Amino acid sequence: MCGITGWISFDRDLKREQGVLDAMTETMACRGPDAAGTWADGPAALGHRRLAVIDLVGGVQPMSVRTDAGEVVIVYSGEAYNFVELRAQLRHAGERFETDSDTEVVLRGYLRWGEALADRLNGMYAFAIWDGRQRKLVMIRDRLGIKPLYFQRTDDGVLFGSEPKAILSNPLVRPTVDADGLRELFAFVKSPGNAVWSGMREVQPGTIVTVDAGGLRERCYWRLETRPHADGQDATVAGVRELLDDIVRRQLVADVPRCVLLSGGLDSSAITALSAALLAEDGERVRSFAVDFVGQTANFKPDAWRGTPDTPYAHDVAEHVGSEHTDIVLDNETLADPAVRRAVVQARDIPTGFGDMDTSLYLLCQAIRERSTVALSGESADELFGGYVQFHDPRAQRAHAFPWIAVDPGRYGSADAILTAEARALLDLGEYRRESYERAVAEIGHLESETDLESRMRISSYLHLTRFLRHLLDRKDRMSMAVGLEVRVPFCDHRLVEYVYNAPWALKTYDHREKSLLRGATRDLLPTSVIERVKSPYPSTQDPHYAAALQRQAAELLGDGDHGVFALVDRRWLESATRPAPAAVDDLDRRGLEWTLSLSAWLDLYRPQLAL
Predict the structure, then answer these.
(1) How far is CA 54 from the centre of its chain?
(2) Do residues 338 and 553 lie in contact, with contact meaning Cβ atoms separated by under 8 Å?
(3) Tens digits of per-residue pLDDT, 351-409?
């Protein structure tokens, strides 16, 4: 895993801009703590920060190959899990290799197959290739959007980077956010391509972007398509298991220490058990890590979202599979620490409403990084197999709206409540969500044989995989890479996604529960407690001392009458949210406090110009 950046300027000699290239590359230092490299020639300049995972000695970047027609140079972030097979194919075709890295496989694959390389890759990746033979830049992003890649057009070319901060560090760019950027921040719908920052875009998942002197072009090489599903229940369960075995085996390949993130839910427990079985074949013992909060298990109170604490279940799994397990226990003082919040905002480049779920993930990854470099995670199983409550709520099934907002507009629309009347009127988040929903639904194909319920559930699945999941993938990437930890997400393998997405809803709920296919495919690996456990979201602290810390910090912010946050946040709302006793602060107000403090930290760190 790495951080990449670059600058293409057809009217300049970028060898003269080494200082700017170095500054852009340095912003990616957290993503690549092991090495740094730059390359510049004429109109092209590329920068790379490396987190060494495969071929620790040979995978140095930028990596180049000289041809008679010109130099071809790559900066690459991610992993190609099928690089061994691709290397064998390329060798058979006459290519010679100087390293054992997957980066060289991708580079030589491009030399052999051109942009059609993208169709052959299995993995998580975002990379850029300067093709000096044709004086063009080629940027390619993985199918699900696991690895980030942003770009911004200039008068004579383009800037790009793994994170917006790399682009924002170029003097050609001003940190501006317009009304559409703010809508994207607060709406919780993740519009494809929207990067929040004015003029900046994401390379969309499954997309190739090419830039030459003639301009910029985008081409989709993969999308989530509707296809008939011919397998019955037993064959589908077996098919899921077969895919998972292959996926996890591939994703355990690394030349550095590996581990798994274990919450005690079905998703992470399945990945842990599969990893344990595969590593045991080589005489290894899997290492697992879980996050917990001081006093959480002993004082846990069930609520509408979480019926049970995670730790007992994580321990059941660790004992069942024989993992070397560690609990990372966090205290509320650290969770609410403004310095940690600033680090999270710096990692994300934007404020978010995830609050302690972001900070706890950041702190968990930080602790894991002291012991491991690669971790496997259960991200995306809920979106793929139908795990969230909104999949099963009749209100959400019938609603012509994003399901997560339809079932709980307060939880996922918590930013709406904190805005001033002027900001609410200007942004009109309800209309933005409605238009975003209609655009998303228009992308979906349907089968003639589908019932109305099957059609509605296909819509729900598509929206979760293409709109909701991308929030979580971005969060997981930023929180982990901020501390130099590579997190892999087996459930995002495009083969599994294509297969399960097209399985009928009746199959996905054949035992009248959530995630029936995943439960059936891994039942033999897991303890009964986890197999029977009801879905529980990512953990969040229940300690009122955390809410009290938020209230104190918000009160301090209220004392700063000139703070720019009040151009967006309603001062009267914030005053009211600081008044209740901490134990009486409801979920909506707590999320509003987290939103406000995150937003104020972002304004302090980035000084964005709000173009409203």
Answers:
(1) 22
(2) yes
(3) 988 999 999 999 999 999 999 999 999 999 999 999 999 999 999 999 999 999 998 88
pLDDT in tens, 78-106: 999 999 999 999 999 999 999 999 999 99
DSSP 569: B
Residue 316 CB neighbours (<10 A)? 18
Other C-beta atoms closer than 10 Å to the C-beta of 485 total 23
Q: Which residues pair with 158 in a beta bridge?
A: 8, 153
Helices (H), 217-259: 233-251
Q: How far is 574 from 2, CA to CA, in rounded Å? A: 40
CA distance 610 to 551: 26
Length of the chain: 612
CA pair distance 591, 585, nearest whole angstrom: 10
Give the tokens for residue 257.
């220490």
Give the H or E element holding residue 406: helix 403-407
4 forms bridges with which residues in the sheet? 48
* Rounded-to-integer distance, Cα 380 and Cα 295, Å: 29
Ranges assigned E (strand) in 389-543: 486-488
Pairwise CA distance, residues 185 & 216, whole Å: 26
CATH architecture of 233-391+467-531: 3-Layer(aba) Sandwich (3.40)
Closest CA to 275 of 378, 363, 366, 364: 378
| Residue 468: DSSP 8-state | I
What is the residue extent of each domain of the chain? 2-220, 233-391+467-531, 544-605
Q: What residues are labeled active site?
A: 2
- Peptide bond before residue 148 is cis, with ω within 30 degrees of 0: no
The SS3 assignment for 512 reads: coil
Q: What is the CATH number of domain 2-220?
A: 3.60.20.10
